[in-house]
Description:
By secondary structure, this protein is an alpha+beta fold. The protein has three helices and six strands, in the order H-H-E-H-E-E-E-E-E. The longest helix is centred in the middle third of the chain and has 17 residues.
Amino acid sequence: MSEYDDIIDLPHPEPRRHQRMGARERAAQFMPFAALTGYEALVRQTVAETAPRPELSENEIEEINQKLRRLREKGQGTAVSIRCVRERFGSKDVEICVRQGKVSRVDADRGIILLDDEGAVFFSDILDIDEIAGA
């Protein structure tokens, strides 16, 4: 005879004040805790937005050069949308971004386009340039 023979066949006690918690609710108590809400989504978004620097073909480079020449001829005030790359700090990957504004100056010596918002885009970072009509 073991020391538990007197209680081994007794029914499991039921709570008196509330219903028994279901298996799903009990399991949720032991799920991993996310201390930084939204962190995983931010990491996934950052990974999705970065990529290796795209290589442009000779035709694409020539097309960008023609657009830059036209912008220099038109002078300042031309509204543009520039699709460009931005270096990611501490990484070889880049982020693709779109800068919009009015051209303040096209500086071929320094290889940059200065925009009216005092931003600058290096020629080497440009993927495409489009003039914004009516702006």
